[in-house]
Specification:
With 452 residues, the protein is an alpha/beta fold. It has two domains: 188 residues, Rossmann fold (3-Layer(aba) Sandwich); 211 residues, FAD/NAD(P)-binding domain. It is 32% helix and 21% strand. The strands form four sheets. It has an eight-stranded mixed beta sheet, sandwiched between helices. It is globular.
Length: 452
């Protein structure tokens, strides 16, 4: 059996699952998992709202994978900045790209470039303590609109509506705590283009909106439309049925007079952001379901006064150096994970998995099956993949050291992890996240650090 070494670029669930499956399927495989951040776990660490501890349980499973002796985590290493694709080919049999999608998908609306219009992904990165975003966030709007009928939109709405005093049991960083303490939002309006059976909320996320005693969830009656296609979905899909039932409960509930309100507007399609020099309102068109589950405009427009708009219409992957990219679909062109060049020919030894392979859709379970497909393709191709010039496992570390790259190893990450947990324990919390990159690296080296 041929000994192989693989480089996985991206230490989120997609990359870690690929490393796990490869080492389980092929006993003579060793894998190095690279990430441009000093910490692993990708959007599980930097894309999930801090008040979702159940979802973050996945980190424990991912951590067990990284503890495998045949898998190494090499953080603070950026493809294209610290190491080239050609360098990886020099040291590895195969390269698996799993960099995910962390940017905001564009929303072409008049006024979307006005001050006060924000991408939801940027806001999520801020409140999740991402080291590469600004430390401060403007939270001066009393009325806010959220465009998008998915879980990210719900997370944004909940984070804007929920008082910071109810979030001090979470891992939010000190700068995020200060920012949320100054938040002036009282009314958050969530707009969905179609009806209750077509929204992409998960039942759990939707129910969690009402868990705060400081927040009333109000569903506007005029958009609560159920057509024939909707009824078929409700009857055949338990998740859809639970979502519709929850929305109906919110619709029928009597407001408590809570100081914060989340308004869910169904069958409202955003058409423009309005304002003179800054966002002052959002214009939506009332829609009606057409019997197939799709919606059409009615020609009736509504202007809702808001001072900020968050666009939660999906994530977008980033084009990586030396790799092909489909700028329309936002993915690396591939066939069953085999990366294809501009002529549709598979690049030897280069693979993709996760959202950069299939687009930003699906849950953790889809990511695992997706990684299995990519690893299956790699193993099928193994006889035709050229062996690397250098097989020494530590040669890549020497190469990065020569380039002045401050690599964060798995042991380093464990020290940073323990440091964050210790910060939390001092405040009666599970963890307080360290945000600045240099402070993360200092903690990983067991040096003195601070939260700022």
């Amino acid at each position: 059996m041929r000994n192989i070494r693989a480089a996985v670029v991206g230490a989120g669930p997609a990359g870690i699952y690929a490393a796990d499956i490869l080492t389980k399927e092929y006993e003579q495989a060793e894998v190095d998992v690279f990430d441009r951040l000093p910490a692993p776990y990708g959007l599980v660490r930097y894309g999930v709202a801090p008040d979702h501890p159940r979802i973050k349980e996945i980190i424990k499973a991912l951590g067990r994978v990284l503890a495998n002796d045949r898998i190494r985590f090499l953080g603070n290493v950026e493809l294209g900045g610290d190491v080239k694709l050609a360098d990886l080919h020099h040291y590895y049999d195969a390269v698996i790209v799993a960099t995910g999608a962390a940017s905001d998908r564009n929303l072409e609306l008049p006024g979307s470039d006005l001050p006060g219009s924000y991408g939801a992904a940027d806001f999520v990165s801020w409140y999740a303590g991402h080291p590469d975003v600004p430390r401060d966030w403007p939270l001066e709007a009393e009325s806010v609109a959220v465009i998008g009928a998915g879980n990210v939109g719900l997370d944004v709405a909940r984070m804007l509506a929920k008082p910071v005093t109810e979030q001090l049991t979470t891992e939010i960083a000190e700068n995020v705590e200060r920012g949320l303490a100054a938040n002036k939002a009282r009314d958050v309006h969530v707009f969905a283009r179609r009806g209750p059976a077509q929204v992409k909320f998960s039942p759990m996320e939707l129910r969690e909106l009402s868990h705060s005693p400081s927040v009333d969830v109000l569903v506007e009656e005029d958009g609560f439309q159920i057509d024939e296609a909707s009824q078929a979905l409700i009857s055949s899909n338990k998740g859809v049925r639970l979502v519709v039932d929850t929305l109906l409960k919110y619709l029928e509930a009597t407001p408590t007079g809570a100081p914060h309100r989340i308004h869910i507007h169904l069958c409202h399609a955003p058409v423009a952001l309005l304002g003179d020099g800054k966002v002052q309102a959002i214009r939506t068109e009332r829609t009606e379901l057409d019997g197939t589950g799709n919606a059409r405009g009615t020609g009736e427009y509504v202007d809702t006064p808001v001072q900020a708009v968050y666009r939660a219409v999906g994530y977008l992957s980033t084009h990586l150096p030396d790799l092909p990219f489909d700028h329309v679909a936002g993915v690396i062109p591939n066939q069953a994970g085999r990366v294809l060049d501009l002529d549709g020919v598979a690049l030897p030894g280069v693979y993709a998995t996760g959202w950069i392979k299939r687009g930003p859709v699906g849950l953790i379970g889809h990511t695992k099956s997706d990684a299995a497909e990519t690893i299956r393709s790699l193993l099928e191709d193994l006889d035709g993949i050229p062996a690397p010039e250098v097989r020494n496992r530590d040669a890549i570390l020497d190469h990065l050291a020569d380039r002045g790259v401050d690599v964060v190893t798995h042991d380093d990450w464990l020290r940073l992890d323990a440091h964050e947990i210790a910060l939390g324990e001092a405040s009666g919390r599970e963890r307080i996240k360290v945000v600045p990159r240099d402070a993360m690296i200092a903690a990983a080296r067991s040096e003195d650090t601070s939260l700022d």
